[in-house]
Design goal:
Blueprint lengths: L4 E9 L4 E10 L2 E7 L12 E4 L1 E6 L8 H8 L4 E6 L2 H7 L1 H11 L5 E6 L17 H7 L5 E7 L2 H5 L3 H12 L4 E3 L6 H9 L4 E2 L5 H9 L3 E5 L7 H4 L3 H4 L3 E4 L5 H6 L2 H10 L4 H16 L14 E4 L7 E6 L2 E5 L2 E2 L32 E6 L8 E6 L1 E3 L2 E3 L6 E7 L9 E6 L7 E4 L8 E5 L2 H14 L2 E5 L5 E5 L11 H17 L7 H6 L9 E4 L2 E4 L4 E2 L5
Parallel strand pairs: 1-4, 5-6, 6-7, 7-8, 8-9, 10-11, 11-12, 17-22
Antiparallel strand pairs: 1-2, 2-3, 4-13, 13-14, 14-15, 15-16, 17-18, 19-20, 21-22, 21-24, 23-24, 23-25, 25-26, 27-28, 28-29
Helix pairs in contact: 2-3, 7-8, 12-13
Length: 552
């Protein structure tokens, strides 16, 4: 419960572009007054600084491997007070019931979650998901005032071609007065304009400044993303001086080991360290998401909810305290939010596999492989064609060329055969990795050096009905169980972060040079991001929007 109190600090007024010492009075969870203590308005170097709390403008909470209440317990330590959260990960597993799970769990925290109505469940017809969310479901979700927007419209071809079902979902959001989030990697010029004209208001998929400028020019707001897999800050931060009023910061997907270390506060620190204007940076980090999504988040004005943070200085932005509705929820890096009992919901029916299930016969004497090439820090992939390595009539990985086997196992239909392909970029020299976090349908995705290791890793995940697994030589194995929808843990956030750090370390010990191997793996089944991905139904070319053969 919040108490009435006052504090003295240098108050950062983002709107007035001023910093001055003042007494902030809080009554009934709201800011009752801000009274300057120095007539000349000069900041007092002996005092800390108070500024609005940070907002993550686009995140999938599920990707933290934590339920909302545990995500909040970590995020508040870094000064984050709100998120714009797309629950389409659990939506793909459990449908509307999954969204309702997130809302119910989040209701036990003062953290200000703004959940969206998932627009693309399933993401495409080219994969098997656990549920469907229809236009009628979206209309029903919008009856709940806690559903604040239509979540990312990933079906950009459907928008460009004005598909009837896609446009119906957008119309429902507009009639309900909710903004529509975009997802349009690589769209430029006329295509970007046509996409935006359908009512799409944002995009978080820009990976070059020129692409972002095209979208800004047609009225879209661009989210600068820096997560555990996709990191676009360096490419886009140059937009700040000219376009700060139309930018926001987001993480999109943030694994627990990096969430323990920092969140939006890190982007603020980096932007200011590069010489960007403090008030412009804070507009991007604090104000723009609140205004765009109409969030119930205070911005340090009299009468606002008392949502603010106290930082040591305006260089490192070390967070000393975080307040939500006048309640002190974090202090000196420690969360003061209590743990909440976690329910376990799931949809997982896969049966154990055998090494023989992953054999791939060669179609001829000298076949060629269409190989997925993945990149550290990017969701996009490339295609490379390489001669296949064949032994006893079977196509094998080639470790010397970093050509590993990739598999996707349907978790919803127990008798389905695995889909197989090959991938370059993971760098494993031995063993395998497997994960039930596989955007967006969340089948089991695995990469390995041999069929036996693939089967071992996948069977660990199946036995736990969800999790992240790494296996190496001599029986070496680590599993992080994810019993909540096969996506999230039911354990405290700090413990999950430590367990994730251990499985991540084993992946790197096995040879992977990637910064976040499991995060990268989770996107290798995301068909809506070009150019080559693998679903449970086969290898998919995102440029042609069609299935192709892995071995030619």
């Amino acid at each position: 419960m919040s108490a009435d109190f006052s504090l003295i600090a240098n108050v950062v007024d983002v709107f007035a572009r001023s910093i001055q010492p003042a007494i902030i009075s809080v009554e009934g969870g709201r800011i009752a007054g801000i009274a300057p203590t120095d007539e000349d308005g000069t900041p007092d170097p002996a005092l800390p600084y108070v500024l609005p709390g940070f907002v993550d403008a686009h995140v999938h909470v599920e990707s933290s491997l934590l339920v909302p209440t545990e995500f909040a317990r970590l995020a508040v330590t870094h000064g984050t007070v709100a998120t714009v959260s797309d629950p389409h990960e659990i939506g793909n597993v459990l449908g509307v019931a999954g969204v309702e799970f997130m809302l119910e769990n989040a209701s036990h925290s003062p953290f200000k979650f703004c959940f969206g109505a998932p627009s693309c469940v399933p993401a495409t017809p080219f994969e098997t998901a656990g549920a469907e969310i229809s236009a009628a479901d979206i209309a029903k979700l919008f009856e709940n005032p806690k559903i604040g927007y239509l979540a990312e419209m990933m079906n950009w071809p459907g928008v460009l071609h004005r598909d009837a079902d896609v446009m119906a979902k957008i119309a429902i959001a507009q009639a309900a007065g909710r903004p529509v989030d975009g997802h349009a990697p690589g769209l430029r010029a006329n295509d970007a304009a046509h996409y935006a004209s359908a009512g799409i208001s944002t995009d978080h998929e820009c990976f070059t400044a020129d692409e972002a400028r095209d979208k800004l020019a047609v009225g879209m707001k661009v989210l600068i993303r820096e997560g555990s897999a996709a990191r676009n800050f360096d490419a886009l931060i140059e937009l700040m001086p000219e376009h700060y009023s139309h930018l926001m910061f987001c993480s999109d997907d943030k694994h627990p080991d990096t969430l323990v270390l920092g969140h939006i506060n890190q982007l603020v620190q980096r932007a200011v360290a590069r010489g960007h204007d403090l008030f412009q940076v804070l507009r991007v980090a604090c104000v723009n998401p609140v205004k765009h999504y109409n969030l119930p988040v205070g911005l340090l004005a009299e009468g606002d909810p008392a949502d603010f943070i106290v930082v040591k200085d305006l260089r490192d932005f070390e967070v000393l305290q975080t307040y939500l509705n006048g309640e002190l929820v974090a202090e000196n890096g420690k969360s003061l939010l209590p743990a909440v009992p976690i329910s376990v919901v799931n949809n997982f029916h896969a049966l154990p596999v055998q090494a023989a299930d992953f054999q791939l016969p060669a179609p001829g004497p000298a076949p060629t492989l269409r190989v997925i090439e993945c990149f550290d820090g990017q969701l996009i992939t490339a295609r490379v064609d390489v001669p296949a390595t064949v032994e006893n009539g079977m196509v094998l990985p080639n470790l010397s060329q970093d050509v590993l086997k990739l598999a996707v196992v349907n978790r919803y239909q127990p008798q389905a055969a695995p889909a197989l392909a090959f991938i370059r970029g993971f760098g494993l020299k031995q063993g395998a990795l497997a994960s039930s976090v596989g955007h967006d349908s969340h089948n089991i995705t695995a990469v390995g050096c041999d069929d036996e290791s693939l089967a071992r890793a996948i069977n660990l995940v199946i036995a736990a009905k969800g999790g992240l697994a790494a296996v190496g030589p001599d029986g070496q194995e680590i599993l992080v169980p994810l019993p909540v929808a096969g996506l999230m843990s039911d354990q405290p956030g700090t413990e999950v972060a430590a367990a994730y750090a251990a499985v991540d370390a084993l992946a790197k010990q096995l040879g992977s040079p990637l910064g976040a191997p499991f995060m990268t793996l989770s996107f290798m089944a995301l068909l809506v991001i070009p150019s080559l991905k693998l679903s449970d139904k086969g290898l998919f070319d995102g440029q042609q929007f069609a299935f192709v053969d892995a071995v030619v």
